Amino acid sequence: MGTEPYLSMFSVTVVLFLPLFFDFCFGRNVDFLSNNLDVLASKDTVLKINKQNSQFFYRNNKELDEYLKLLAEKCKSIMRLYSIGTSILGYPLWVLEISDKPGEREAEPGFKYVGNLHGDEPVGRELLLLLGTWICDNYMEDPLATYIVRGVHLHLLPSMNPDGFDRRSRNNAHNIDLNRDFPDQFLHHNDNEDSCQPETKAIMNWTRKNKFVASASLHGGAMVANYPWDGTSDGRTKYSRCDDDKTFQYLAEIYSRSHPYMHQSVEFPNGITNGAAW
């Protein structure tokens, strides 16, 4: 993936997806959104964010560890670094919490981003580092960064699969695809949680302990917003509708249409797809 699509995806994530998501899902009548959304989604704002984050390179696991610790210390009034477990090879699964009251429970929506679930899809881990860095550098200076910190509890897991990243492999150190390792309504051989991989167990325990209202996982390989369900009862490739299908379509299309290219996709109408139909 080249530099321009990479930075464009980051801009969409920061500029539009989060505020629209919170406004729609929680019915918050936020004057900030109604008065400033056009400005936040403007080309000037996107270019400003791109310029601030124009330096891009992939960090190895040691560098990721060091960078997260430095970032959390730099902005310790709004950030907290914690681990939800370790990988098979012993790498911490670091999460960067961002809030005006990190470490405290608040009556605010909790949202989690997960990157690098597949070890050979590393763009997500750098996107989340850039997102955390941008918020750290712009809190109290930029209205959107300030709004995110004050209006939500944000949790960023840059790398769910550091072992796979080290090995340049899709799978973890046990050669398991973590994206197929969770209990699934259509895959009953995964019902035994004791047999799940340590990275998978860490995500499940983390989710149970926190009241996340929604999540997003950043993958690589295609420019599309994918929404549930991802499976079918008979294993066939076809549309698999969940109860909140209209809501997920709405959110996916907001994301897609905020991107300069995604909504123009020839392969995916409007730049979105139901996972099971893909």
Describe the structure.
By secondary structure, this protein is of the alpha/beta class. Helices cover about 40% and strands about 15% of the residues. It is built from 9 helices and 7 strands. The longest helix has 24 residues, at about 5-25. It is globular and about 50 Å long. The model is unreliable at about 1-50 (pLDDT under 50).
Gist?
The protein has 278 residues and is of the alpha/beta class.
Write the layout of secondary structure elements.
Elements: H1 3-26, H2 31-40, H3 43-52, H4 61-74, E1 79-86, E2 92-98, E3 110-115, H5 123-138, H6 143-151, E4 153-157, H7 162-167, H8 198-209, E5 212-218, E6 225-227, H9 245-258, E7 272-274
Parallel strand pairs: 3-4, 3-5, 6-7
Antiparallel strand pairs: 1-2, 2-4
InterPro entries: CARBOXYPEPT_ZN_1, CARBOXYPEPT_ZN_2, Peptidase_M14, Peptidase_M14_domain
Organism: Ceratopteris richardii
Pfam family, one: Peptidase_M14
Keywords:
7 strands, 9 helices, 278 residues, disordered N terminus, alpha/beta, five-stranded mixed beta sheet, CARBOXYPEPT_ZN_1, zinc ion binding
